[in-house]
Structure formats: C-alpha cells, structure tokens
Predict the structure of 2-hydroxyacylsphingosine 1-beta-galactosyltransferase-like.
Amino acid sequence: MATLVTLAALAALSCAAAAPLNVLLVSTVSSPSHYIWTNALATGLLERGHRVTELVIRPPAVKHENRTSFVITAPTYGDEHGWDLEVTNVLSLWEEIPFFYSFCVESAKAAFESQAFTDLMKHLKEKKPKFDVFVLDFIMQEPMIGLNSVIGRVPVVAFTAFNMPEEVLQAMGSPFVASMLPFQGVGADGGVPMTFRERADNAFKWLTYKLYAHYVDRPRINQDIAKWFPGAPSLEELEKDLAISLVNTSPPLHGGMPTVPAVVEVGGLQAQPPKPLPKDLLDWVDAKNAPHGFIYMAFGTNVKAKMIRKERRDAILRAFGRLKQRVLWKYEDDDIHDKLPPNVKVAKWLPQNDILGHPNIRCFVSHNGGLSTQEASYHGVPIVGVPFFVDQIGYSHKIEKIGIGRRVHYQSITEDSFFETVFDVANNPKYRENMQKVRQALRDQKETPLERAVWYIEYAARTGGAPNLRSPGLQLRWYELYMLDLLGAALLAVVLFVWLVSRMVAAFVGLLFCTAPKRAKAKTQ
Ligand SMILES: *[C@@H]1O[C@H](CO)[C@@H](O)[C@H](O)[C@H]1NC(C)=O
C-alpha cells in the first residue's frame, strides 16, 4: 500500500514537472550567431513539450506546432554597417566602448521599430496570453525587459550568448571579483591567474565600463523602456524579476569562476553531436579523397567575405595552395572561383557543427568567436584564431594559453606567416592532444548544458522566481557589497590612531623638554 502511495505521488510529481510551460522568448541582439544559441534553447524547450512564443531575428528552420514566431526582418548590424577589419582588433578602450554600445543601441532600435515587435505587442494586448516564464536575451538588449510589465511581471530568466558579462553578475547580486574574473568572461590577455599588471588593466577596464554604463547606458535603457512600454517601471525595478541568468561559459574553457548559484553556466549548449554531411561535402572531406585530412575556415556570421581585403584573401589562398590538406572555406562572394587552388573549395554557407564533428578534420581557421571556439572544443578540433573584435580577441589569447591553437594577427597576414601557422596547428600533435583534454572535460558533466538550461527555466517558473537562490548581495549597496564602507572605517580608525599616538608622543616629548629645566631649577634652589 505504502509503495502504491509512493508510486502515485511520484507519478504526480513527474507529471507536475513535465507540465508544459508557456514561455515568452525574446532575442533581438542583431547578430546571427546569437540566434544560433537562442534557437538551440528554443528547440530544447519545445522538445520538453513547452510552448514557445518568440521575438527573434531569424525564422525557425523547422516549423513546430507549439512555436509562434515574430521575426525581425531588418538587416543585421554587420550587414547594414559593415566592419572595417583593418581597425576593429586594435581599438583602444576609448574606441571600444562606443563601438560596443553603438551595436547595442542600433540593435534595440531595429528591434523596436520592426513590424515583428508591433505584431507581438498587438498579440499580447489582444490575446492576453498567460506566460509562466519570460526567457530574455538580456545583455545588449536590456530595454526588452519592459515586455515583462506588459505580460504581468512573471519570473525572468536572462540569458546571453556573450560569455559571462559583468552586467549579469551585477544584476544577480554576484560580486565581480576583478582579481579572478576576466572582464566580460575573456578580458585578460594572459588568462587567469592574472599578474599585477593584468589585474590593474582588468579593474581599470571594468570601472571605466561601469562609469559609462551608469552615466550613459542605463539612462538610455530607461528612456527606451519609457518610450516603448509606456507606464512600465524602471530598469532597476524590472531587474527585480530576474530569477536566473544563463551564461555562455564553462569551466574547461574559462576556469572555475566564482558566482552566486542563480548564475548558471551553460556554455556551449548549441554544440551537438554531428549529423551526416550532405553528399558533395562528404565526398570532398572524406579520407578516401582527402588522405591528409582537411581544414575548415569560417569567420562566423558577422564578418563577411566582402570585408576582407583582396591582397589578404589572395595571400591566404596561396598559403592554402601549399598545404597537403584539403580546405573548406565559408566565403559568401562569387569573386573567387577562378582563383582557387585545386585543394580549396568555397561555399556560402556550411553546416559548421557537422563539419567540426567529421573525423577527418585537422584544424579550424576561425575568427575565434565564443560559439565557434566552444564548438571546436566540443569536437576536439585545434584552432587557428584570427580575431576581429571584442571577445574574439580574448578567446584568441585563451587558446594560446591553454595550448589548443595559435592566434594570427589579421593585419600581419602574409602567405608565409599564414602557411607556417596553419601548417603547425594542423600537423603538430600537441594542439590536438590538449584539445582532446578540453573536449573530454566539456563532456564530463552531470547533464548536458542544454538540459541544465531547460531545467533552470522550469525551476524559475515552478518556484515563482527561484526566491531561494536570490543573492543577499541584492540588498546591499555597491560599497557594502565590496566592503568599501568597512575598509573606509578601518582606514579612518588607523588614521585616528596614528594621529592620537603622534599627539601623545608630541605631548610627551614636549613635557620632557619643557619640564627638564624646571626640575633642574628646582634642584639648585
Ligand atoms: C504541443 O503542446 C501540446 C500541449 O502542451 C502537447 O500535447 C503536444 O505534444 C505538443 N506538440 C509537440 C509536437 O511537442
């Protein structure tokens, strides 16, 4: 009987856990790579039986009966503005901050002004759907949190494909320990532990960004919220709805970073076991036809072929022509076909995850974006990193530090230097061996990052915002969190003490000098 009751209780529990949730998913960062991550998350939620209503920048590849998509069709930031690759990787901090924030501002503008946003707002106002949880691509698109006031303030799970940004830690009441945490997850050039100089740089960069965020960015975010969600509370108030943050880092690549439990590392959730390649690609990379293996080159979704200068492109092609391996290059333009050496094949789009998972691959020439670095690591493929901006630069330092690849400075690419680096990474076994260790560590987790992400979304919904995980840091002011008030009090005590002691010494010395003659006088009398 007891067993039966237990069984019934268990059955009820598992039903409750599996009760489908109504999820609002919003990801409007104007970068196709972020969509790859968002789509993996949406797919994970749908596979668990949840219903997803989403505002995103790409239509889903596969239709699903429980997925309602509002798709922003505006060109992405990179397509609209382009990037000058000759300068993006050598920006100073003073150039990098506006560069980064202009991307955020333009992304938000494109999203708010889109038909998809208008349609979603109309849908929410007319149909009044009830949501259990709001899953939001928060960093770089903070104003979208205003949607939570439209749907009645449900628990928010913030996520970002952009490493572990400091803004997330702040919003979750998790201290940013600048001695251990590289800014934005990858900031420290030499990795961790940081030297004195690196810690100084890291702290300076962090504080500069903080000042910019406080005086420029947060006021702008609040203006956007007031403009697009009339009557909505401020960012500071809406941030109280943040239950969980899913961040795109993982210990094998980033080290064990100190965070509160509401910050959940689900790095690389988009990396999946490979699916079979289409026939033409399979024939090209197969060991029968490519006995020395093959090399895959792709610069992600933001950097396009047309942005690469012709002389650099031609140097790269000549270097490839000298290799024994075959080469697959994701190249979006048609101006290259008559220049290709016989061992090089280009295509406008390539199934990256499946290519990286092919056993005959020898190395990956990459812009070292976060997602590409994770996918290469997941599949154990050494990297030649050619970083262009922001976190790519940090990742390229990281791969050298861990010994899983080498970095190339884009502006210094010559046929010889490029050939030498690619040859080394493709042929020297040490990179592959180190990469195998990272690969092993990435797979040695108690559940997959995607399962973990979905579990925490369900947890946030069923606990009404994960109150048990709330950080006490959220109730402290910034100087209390970092104990600056204590430090100030201690300094004041030391100063007072030194002052007191010096006054006493002075008084004593004064006493000695003033009274000695008096006593002498007294004796002679
Ligand atoms: C869609 O949702 C319904 C109700 O939540 C569920 O019964 C159904 O299995 C879902 N469909 C798919 C294909 O998952």
Notes: The pocket of 2-acetamido-2-deoxy-beta-D-glucopyranose is lined by residues 20, 49, 51, 65-66 (CB under 6 Å). The chain has two domains: 19-268+448-475, 279-443.
